[in-house]
Design brief:
The structure is a homodimer.
Chain A lengths: L2 H7 L7 H12 L1 E5 L4 E3 L8 E6 L2 E6 L5 E7 L18 E4 L3 E6 L1 H10 L1 H27 L2 H18 L3 E2 L2 E3 L4 H8 L3 H13 L3 E4 L2 E4 L2 H7 L22
Antiparallel strand pairs in A: 1-7, 2-6, 3-7, 4-5, 4-6, 8-9, 9-11, 10-11
Chain B binds a DNA duplex through helix 7.
DNA sequence: CGTCCCCTTGAATGAAGTCAATACGCGTGG
DNA sequence: CCACGCGTATTGACTTCATTCAAGGGGACG
């Protein structure tokens, strides 16, 4: 059930079998499945549960009155919404599925129980939320300072490494369910220009992206192009996710 | 001491006199003063204390290898760094003073004591950290979708309202210690273009900005120009900060 | 009172957006 | 099994918003 979350947390804390059971059973309680492009929660709604992505991708986004849309973050397998959102009266952004997604709804009460009784998980969740904030800051940097090629390259690096951390990328390959329009909305570029930049990266033999599958042929080069450094992901324990896998 | 923080928190929770005493004495423990443009903490440092801005402004920023700089957030009076940063081995960004700033250093231990014993403050601090994340998302939207004029207008709205919430803006006027270069680094624009946009807003009689002092002549208009809605600041209880003050 | 930033303004350049037309691919239904 | 149709990807030509370069003026602070 919660393998991706467990895989991710283990980059920071060592979980015992019992901890994993706790997470798995919390994730089994209430599971919802979504088709591509369905709303999961909308701006203005009252938040009541914490969503955990079990498989597939989702995104947070905000709209401007005139229709412009910005994706402000991606939810990959193992990603959680803020575990204390329900303090707020209403959502200031929306969340929608990208491909097919399955999401576990975790109640505030279940979370409280974890915080009370499971120290290692709690530590892991704190770490996770700090990393989420660091990612949001890095996106600010990305949009503010990097040019189009750098921006796309950086985003691809980040997503690829996060997928590895979640244990859902094999070797140089990962599932990549988002369309170019989504990349455009996430990087603040026009879809046309996203297309051109992707071709540029393909021509350089750094990546290939066909059939909803991303292959990173040369991660080192991609990181250079995107001026990517992984420090903000805080993968401190030896950071296995950063080295090209041995097999 | 901690008036600004108290003023801010009271927009979400009702604090009792005792709560205020607790915050004031925590803020009195260790106070550091900085001159303009001094580093408060640098990327790579090990975080050990939580900084609370008592007066003046500071900013978080990140550098790219080639020197480009992005300000990812501003710290106004009453703003706190993440109260659990010290989980992380090292900072992924730097913080520096803008004008003259005084900062209280609060120890993790002092924070733990507050979380243990002071429910209302704890609620307020949770709310504050959720708002900080919402602001970071809004900046992502700002950089990704808004054009130059909208971007500057939006940022000015946000800062002005946050200053009111902190109780340090009077009527239409506030101290505004940042230079145009900082605005440029925060909005991802060139300093030259920031200058032009500011003039545009001055010519429209919406703001004036002289002598490190910002006057917002027409907040409503500025909000329209910046496509600004304050929902992400989650000022739910009547939101006095949003109405032009009666006096 | 002098010096150093910072602000200001104009002109030339450039990166990315817009517009528009065509091609592809996938799922549906005949 | 193949034809149709919609949404997505692709490509080229033109436009625009913002950057860069450059030079001059002003204000704050020691």
């Amino acid at each position: 059930m919660a393998e991706a979350l467990i895989s991710k947390l283990q980059h920071f804390v060592q979980l015992l079998p019992h901890d994993k059971d706790v997470l798995n059973s919390a994730a089994r309680e209430r599971v919802r499945k979504f088709s591509p492009n369905e709303p999961i929660i909308l701006e203005g709604d009252k938040p009541t549960v914490i969503n955990l992505v079990l498989s597939g991708w989702a995104c947070r986004y905000k709209h401007l009155e005139d229709g412009r849309r910005q994706i402000v973050s991606f939810f990959l397998p193992g990603d959680l919404c803020d575990h204390n959102v329900f303090i707020l009266r209403q959502m200031d952004h929306s969340i929608a599925s990208i491909g097919h997604v399955s999401v576990a709804e975790i109640t505030p009460k279940a979370f409280d129980a974890i915080f009370e009784n499971h120290y290692r998980i709690t530590q892991g969740l704190w770490w996770d939320s700090l990393v989420a904030m660091a990612i949001q800051r890095e996106w600010t940097l990305n949009l503010g300072q990097r040019n189009a090629v750098e921006r796309i390259a950086h985003l691809l690096c980040e997503l690829f490494i996060r997928l590895r951390v979640a244990g859902v990328a094999r070797d140089k390959t990962c599932s990549f369910p988002i369309r170019q329009i989504d990349l455009a909305d996430a990087t603040g570029m026009s879809p046309v220009h996203v297309n051109r930049v992707l071709h540029e990266l393909r021509d350089l033999q750094v990546i290939s992206l066909v059939n909803r599958t991303l292959v990173v042929h040369d991660l080192k080069r991609l990181m250079e192009i995107g001026l990517f450094t992984a420090n903000y992901l805080h993968l401190d324990r030896g950071a296995p996710a950063l080295e090209p896998e041995s097999r």
